């Protein structure tokens, strides 16, 4: 996502500490071991607030006399393995064993400020800075050892947590001994010498993820798991339809309902605090609220807002003479693609615990953006940010949904109102109806083929609801013109001499925002399915056609396309009713190509995705096993998105309350996943968590065409839509 | 009433119609039993009742008197992980991990009844346990691995 903001965070402002001198080891130890210890802390210290366990919140790395290295990870773990990956980078550059690193989960009091964990940029953005910090520490330890050993620093080497005299490896001193009894503080300024990538020993290895064991014993603590002794439970009233506002409230019945401690009614907030979760729910049910409904929005209203006509769009790319080239083309092809509202649907719904006191607050939550949440909560309860501490817990599924933690804000407001810790947990219906959805998109693609069957002109006009714009003030929206979240995936690596790509933004009445990959899946669906249509019109093989439109700059894309095709057996015959489709994209700096194999039932319209082959190049690989796991997850998401996922609006209501209304992919429909990883240790690491969702839907649509000869231009490709397409063919 | 959970007896003074999920998580702080739908559709809250997989979010505690309840916290014995837990670690199954308690306990019940399940039997037993991260391929592998370990 937003690369610009990330770069502004200067490396030179980072500090790290070596040594444990005046650091207060007892407090540090409290957090070592991560969340299980935190749980113990929560239950044992319910009424006292912990002081910051570090003297300096900018401390990133801490080398202790115990030979342990403490590394304060400020990226949130949601199953992408970020803790482990970043620990591998630190361990390798610092020359310590992976097992010597402790990476406790941190709070906003102890972590370096960070925009959040999204956009598949955690590794790519921290790889250079973490290496620099670790290298600086390593070089500092060498200087210290040079003094102690009476040897020039240049004659020293490091390995496995020790500084070693290169000419005489029996002479060495451990990092712990070097820092024992003193505190060395270094501020990173210049670029320290980095290891050669060919010397990496831990980077590139399938190190088992550190978060996994606790996730199988119940010990891992998520936002929804946080508790303190004596906490109360809160529930807040949410509007029955989009834009509904409170007209009248009668709290008298609820006030005397069993277990109810307080009914809170202030401004836009109606909530009930009770001793149990059930009593809170029943208590809220006893509040008599009359709502003024919002407009009865229908899908037709939404569709009409997503217009790609006129000149109001923002041009993302213009090359050559598109209109002339379209006029002069031998063949002109046009198609319209649509994608619907979709939900992130993490299994862990919104839930948080807040303990708000007169002058300070602590909030435990699943959040991808703890510092943004701190700002929101400080505002909501009238405290300064410095007096609000967010303790981020493990995230039970983020996918963009947990960039916002509405339940945490509600918990804080209720806790403030009752002066006691309050936990708020949402239901699945509340989650669907009051979160943010992926906005629908509408793409019109027009292309001209020349006499040789090459793409001579390409025009893509796309309309989308907001993805990131919702968080931007109007002047910024004006300056940006288009929402780079919504347009993600629209620009291709193909060499079209004449092309124009235009984005139209629609401010929809439904709250929309991030969803895994943002605009990537919708846009690559349109682009890569349309490319297939052009290949067909040109009478070319879809793989050859793509390769023919990639030049020398497209070398990495060509490589993944070829690798996926080879692995999938591209060109080999399939049984009747089965088909194979290919698609590719570049995203977050990574390259991905996928071949899907499907079986289509002509009678029922049912599509089964049998197999998805993914070839992936994300530069240097930090942890190949985790990369494979992320590809597997993206393929499942991609197939669910292609075949199942859609939310509709009716009479101003979001029409999903349970997983029956919004089915996600289950084990029975999971395709076989095959993966080819193309390691490029010569190139910096790039994004992993989202890019492989990009091509899936297009690969499936193209495979359906290969199987039964019809084009599906709308996701999800449901049996009804497949039958319609077959009937009108 | 008394509830036997992970071989410990708890005396509850609340109504029999309270749901097991809230008793486990909010009263006993056994937060390893997770939830994702509250209507018995997702499988995140599965616990074992006399060895059978049961959805805690739709099960009133009144039905459970005299029965043995096992939650994820009680699956390891004397510090040794259950072979299913170990297999899930060996296959590096979890991503976010939220659904995993339910996945593991459902798999334990399956292997208890069907020690060498076919792929179709694994799918039949596990298909109602949702995993939004999409770890299905690895869950299948881990169940097969656990079956092999438990046989030997």
Output the keywords.
heterodimer, A: 729 residues, alpha+beta, seven-stranded mixed sheet, five-stranded mixed sheet, 30% helix, globular, disordered N terminus, B: 152 residues, 5 helices, 5 strands
Description of the structure:
The complex is a heterodimer of chains A (729) and B (152). With 729 residues, chain A is of the alpha+beta class. Chain A is built from 21 helices and 28 strands. In chain A, strands 11-12-9-19-16-17-18 form a 7-stranded mixed sheet, sandwiched between helices. Chain A has a 5-stranded mixed sheet with strand order 4-3-2-1-8. Chain A starts with a helix and ends with a helix. Chain B has 152 residues and is α+β, with helices and mostly antiparallel strands. Helix content of chain B is 36%, strand content 12%. Chain B has 5 helices and 5 strands; from the N terminus they run ββαβββαααα. A 5-stranded mixed sheet of chain B has the order 2-1-5-3-4, with helices on one face. At the A-B interface, helix 7 and helix 19 of A face helix 1, helix 2, helix 3, helix 4 and helix 5 of B.
């Amino acid at each position: 996502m937003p690369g610009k903001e990330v770069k502004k965070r200067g490396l030179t402002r980072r500090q790290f500490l070596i040594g444990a001198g005046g650091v207060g080891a007892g407090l540090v130890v409290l957090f070592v071991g991560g969340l299980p210890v935190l749980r113990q802390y929560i239950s044992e210290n319910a009424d006292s607030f912990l002081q910051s366990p570090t003297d300096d919140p900018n401390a990133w790395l801490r080398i202790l006399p115990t030979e342990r290295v403490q590394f304060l990870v400020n990226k949130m773990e949601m199953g992408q393995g970020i803790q482990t990956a970043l620990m591998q980078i630190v361990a390798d550059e610092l020359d310590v064993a992976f097992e010597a690193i402790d990476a406790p989960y941190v709070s906003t009091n102890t972590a370096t400020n960070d925009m959040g964990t999204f956009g598949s940029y955690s590794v790519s953005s921290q790889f250079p800075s973490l290496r620099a910090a670790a290298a600086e520490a390593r070089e500092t330890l060498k200087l210290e050892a040079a003094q102690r050993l009476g040897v020039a620093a240049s004659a020293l080497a490091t390995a496995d947590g020790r500084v070693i005299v290169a000419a005489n490896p029996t002479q060495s001193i451990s990092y712990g001994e070097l820092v024992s009894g003193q505190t060395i503080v270094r501020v990173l300024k210049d670029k320290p010498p980095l290891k050669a990538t060919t010397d990496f020993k831990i980077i590139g290895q399938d190190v088992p993820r550190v978060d996994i064991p606790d996730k199988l014993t119940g010990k891992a603590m998520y936002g929804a798991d946080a508790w303190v002794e004596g906490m109360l439970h809160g529930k807040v009233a949410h509007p029955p339809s989009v834009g509904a506002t409170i007209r009248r409230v009668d709290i008298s019945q609820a006030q005397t309902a069993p277990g109810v401690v307080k009914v809170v009614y202030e401004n836009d907030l109606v909530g009930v605090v009770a001793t149990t979760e059930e009593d809170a729910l029943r208590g809220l049910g006893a509040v008599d609220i009359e709502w003024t409904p919002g407009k009865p929005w229908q899908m037709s209203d939404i569709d009409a807002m997503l217009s790609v006509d006129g000149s109001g769009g923002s041009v993302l790319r213009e090359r050559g003479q598109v209109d002339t080239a379209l006029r002069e083309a031998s063949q002109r092809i046009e198609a319209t693609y649509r994608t619907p509202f979709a939900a992130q649907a993490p299994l862990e719904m919104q839930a948080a615990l807040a303990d708000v006191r007169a002058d300070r607050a602590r909030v435990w939550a699943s959040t991808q953006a703890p510092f943004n949440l701190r700002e929101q909560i400080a505002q909501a309860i009238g405290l300064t940010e410095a007096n609000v501490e967010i303790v981020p817990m493990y995230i039970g599924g983020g996918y963009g949904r947990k960039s916002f933690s509405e339940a945490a804000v509600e918990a804080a407001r209720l806790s403030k109102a009752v002066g006691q810790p309050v936990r708020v947990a949402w239901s699945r219906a509340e989650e669907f109806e009051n979160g943010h959805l992926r906005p629908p998109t509408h793409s019109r693609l027009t292309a001209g083929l020349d006499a040789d069957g090459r793409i001579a002109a390409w025009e893509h006009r796309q309309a989308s609801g907001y993805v990131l714009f919702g968080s931007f003030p109007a002047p910024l929206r004006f300056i940006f013109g288009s929402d780079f979240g919504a347009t993600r995936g629209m620009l291709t690596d193909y060499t079209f001499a004449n092309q124009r790509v235009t984005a139209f933004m629609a401010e929809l009445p439904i709250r929309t925002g991030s969803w895994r990959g943002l605009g990537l899946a919708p846009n690559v669906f349109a682009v890569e399915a349309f490319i297939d249509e052009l290949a067909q019109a040109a009478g070319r093989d879809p793989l050859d056609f793509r390769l023919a439109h990639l030049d020398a700059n497209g070398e990495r894309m060509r490589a993944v396309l070829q690798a996926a095709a080879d692995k999938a057996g591209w060109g080999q015959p399939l049984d009747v009713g089965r088909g194979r489709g290919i698609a590719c994209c570049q995203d977050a700096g990574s390259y991905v190509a996928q071949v899907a194999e499907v079986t289509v039932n002509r009678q029922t319209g049912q599509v089964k995705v049998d197999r998805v082959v993914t070839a992936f190049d994300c530069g240097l690989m930090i942890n190949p096993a985790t990369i494979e796991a992320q590809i597997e997850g993206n393929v499942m998401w991609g197939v669910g998105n292609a075949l199942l996922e859609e939310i509709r609006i009716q009479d101003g209501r979001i029409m999903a309350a349970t997983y029956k209304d919004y089915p996600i992919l289950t084990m029975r429909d999971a395709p076989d996943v095959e993966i080819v990883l193309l390691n490029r240790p010569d190139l910096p690491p790039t994004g992993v968590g989202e890019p492989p969702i990009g091509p899936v839907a297009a690969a499936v649509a193209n495979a359906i065409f290969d199987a039964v000869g019809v084009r599906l231009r709308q996701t999800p490709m449901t049996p009804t839509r497949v039958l319609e397409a077959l009937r009108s063919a | 009433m008394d509830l036997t959970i992970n071989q410990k007896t708890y005396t509850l003074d609340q109504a029999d119609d309270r749901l097991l999920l809230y008793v486990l998580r909010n009263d006993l702080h056994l937060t390893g039993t997770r939830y994702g739908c509250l209507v018995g559709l997702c499988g995140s809250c599965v616990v074992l009742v006399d060895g059978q997989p049961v959805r805690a979010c739709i099960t009133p505690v009144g039905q459970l008197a005299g029965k043995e309840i096992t939650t994820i916290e009680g699956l390891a014995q004397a510090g040794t992980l259950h072979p299913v837990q170990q297999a899930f670690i060996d296959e590096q199954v979890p991503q976010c991990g939220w659904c995993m308690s339910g996945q593991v306990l459902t798999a334990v019940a399956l292997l208890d009844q069907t020690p060498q399940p076919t792929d179709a039997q694994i799918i039949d037993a596990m298909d109602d346990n949702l995993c939004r991260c999409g770890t299905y391929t690895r869950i299948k592998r881990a169940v097969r691995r656990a079956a092999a370990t438990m046989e030997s």
